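To make this tangible, we now present a fold written out as tokens:
***
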Amino acid sequence: GQFAADSGVYGGQDEIWLTHTNGAYEAIFLSDASAISNPFSLRGNSAAQWSFNIDDIKLELVSVASDGEYYLLMYLNTSASNYGFGIYAYGSDTWSEAVTDGLRFNAVSTSAKPVFTCVDGVVRIADKLKGEDCYKPWFSYIDRNRCGTTTAYCRKWVAAQSPLIAPTDSNIPIAASASTQSPSQGEFKLGTDYSFSRNVSETGSWNPNGITGTSHASSSGLRKLVANASVFEASMVGMTVKMSSSTSVITGFESATTIYTEDVTWADGTAFKVYEVYDLGFSWVYDGNQESLIHNRTSAVNEDKKNWSFHIDEIACGHYWDTETTARKTGMQMYYRKNSDSTNTWYHLGEVDFNTGFRKSGEDDFSKTWIQRTLKTEYQLTDIEISTPPTYETYETRNGFKSDSTEHLDLSADSTGYSTSIIANRTHYIGNVKYANKDGVVRNHGDVMFKSLPNKFDTFPLNRKMEVSVQDGDEITALETYADRLLQFKKNKMHLINISQEIEFLEDTFNYKGVADQSAVCKTDYGVAWVNRDGCYIYNGKDVENLLEKNAIRRIKKNGIDGWVYNHTFDPMIAYLPKERWLFIPKDHSGGDAAAGAQGAWIYDMISKSLVLQDGEFTTEDGYKISNLVTDHNGDIVYFISTGVIKTLDVDAIANSGVKIYTRDIDFGSPGIRKKVYRVRISYKGDASALNVRWSRDGDDNPQNFEGTSSGKPTGTAAPTPLEDKSGDLTLWHHAELKPAIASDATNIYSFQLLISGTAAADFKINDISIIYREKTVK
């Protein structure tokens, strides 16, 4: 049977009968489109006894369309999850742990802090702490066919690793030519009978300088070979010479009859041969456009033939290539280099695409396509012959750097990584990088950034290193971009870097405007905003503005429960709420004391340029930590608290008995001149009848009342709650003229403060506040 659509149907399609003779077989069962809940089953077709073993069973989607789903990724931060991640699906409102699929940091020695980078549907994750044994996860959905068929494919979510690991010997087994090679999952198996040669002379131009000869009756000896005829050429330096069982490399040329070699004592009057040895190297292709370093796997050599052709009998691959270590691989590049080439240049030999086939270096089309040998488990490319060693391309011309570990940033080693990253101009910038130097010593470089090659987000040549300020006692903590500028944040400063050209340059440095980490930076449609313990700033493409200052005057006090932060231990964060054009700024995320205002948050309105403090247990309950803030696809701000609960910032108005709206002590720009305040005009809507609206002068702690209002006009009687209930008509803004109850107290004042507190209904809103005053003549 197969999958069933209902209990009365055995097969979603026609019945498939299994072969019932001895042997190993594979069968593919396809479900009906309407199959939902019935089990997959096998049943006997007779009463006879029968037995079988199921070696492997796999349930896979044949195809999957984009469902338009949105996901949220959360770091679980527990050893029980192997320091893995959870994924929330918005559409289905469900959580799943991706740990079983490999999305994890693995066994880190301390709790890790993830750095997420998203581009082209891929999430790359690094540990900011660069912990020992910590993975660098790469997570995405992969949908690609294998070996030119739709029956072998990778079509699923894949958790792999970001570093581009080169092949190893075990990845590229070599065997004698055979009709079937039975490759394992992830193997690139080569079949050859004559060490990758056609074994026929004059069929190509490999080993063009190969010779045979006989040593002179005398004069040969240690490291010196003298021929009895003129057979040597200067171009043979680096080639291999063999006499009986002795083999060495030619190191020097004296004449057509005399050469020098490595430590071998050559016999007189004995036959010898000189031939070229070609190293064969292979590199994985990742994601269709990134290439690992070359692994020098073996040699192509034929010591008995001259001008032979390079030949591979068959290349065999098979299975799905859908595991953590194979799914990202889309092909293999093949290279060669001559041992006699003193430059050690790797020349491109050909390319194998794991779906399309093989093409020689310089070819536009794939001249060889995959041939099925065994369904799903083996496909071959056969009879690959290259008569002339190609010199069109080298590894360096194809990639922009040499295949040398000393020229490439290796982030695969333990304790390596970076603390922050950003994508800009299709380039991956990483900062505060820990890596091994040319001597193999791993050291953290807090001032260093690297940039990837464009569109190759895991490829970091060492010559693309960037340093702005070095050994200044600081380190890079965050990166962000706006237009063609890169903002590099350190703890105590911000460097503004122009990245509009290939060569970046520093435009400006802003001291004391650094951040603690990436959670203190966000991007808005006005520019890049960030916070630290001293203020809130925005870069708009031209200038850096401190949002806590206006006309060089601080708008709110720095410390205290109702200040910017309570004290220097607080670490504020920031996120942008595009629906309201607000900056949302929790005062602290470390689980501090609510009595000190740790769970409060500032809201900055980008339109009105106003600041409002939401105090109390606004972001979370007392003592709980919160995660970084994320603006999701709905335009909502989302975060987690340390209990594991996901929270969305709720901006819907509710009735509140703890409203406090205090203006600063306003001196109207003339602190030394006396004024007289006549009226305060407030435009509002909703029920404000329970709000206390009072005023004070010259910093006095004893506020005074206004006269009450009726239809917006003063009544002549003092009232602590002078506003009215205007909830009957919420389509209009209602105006109230507030007159100081004791007019003489509002005369000869230097500053004025408006204080609104008490209970506000959910529909209450203020549109604007105006103060009518007159400066008095200086006497």
